[in-house]
Amino acid sequence: MGRSVFRRATLPWWGLRLLVLLIYVFMLGPILITAAVSFNASNQSRFPPVGFSLQWWGQVFDPRWIDPLVFSLQLATASTLASLLLGAPLAFGLVRYRFPGRAALLAFSLSPLILPALVTGIGLLLVLQLLGLGGLFGLPALVIGHVIICLPFVVRMTAIGLGTMPIRVEDAALSLGATPSVVLREITLPLIKGGLFAGATFAFIQSFTDYSIGLFLSSAQHRPVTLTILNFIEFGFTPTLAAVAVVTLVIPLVLLLAVQRFFRVGDFIFGSSGRG
Amino acid sequence: MPRKLVPLLLVLVPTAFLFVFFAIPNAFLLTASFLKSEAQALTDEVTLENYQVLFRRTLYVNAIIRTFTIGAAVGALVVVIAYPLAFFLSRTTSRWKEVLMALSLSPLLASVVVRTYGWWVVLNREGALNDALRALRIIDQPYQFLPSSGAIVLGLTHSLLPYGIITIMTALNGVNPRLEQAAMSLGASRTRTFLSVTLPLSSAGIAGAFLLAFALAISAYATPQILGGPATPVMATQIYNLMLTILDWSLGSAMSVLLIVSAAGLMLIGTAIGSRRRAEAA
Question: For residue B188, how many other CB atoms are within 10 A of its CB?
Answer without folding.
Answer: 17
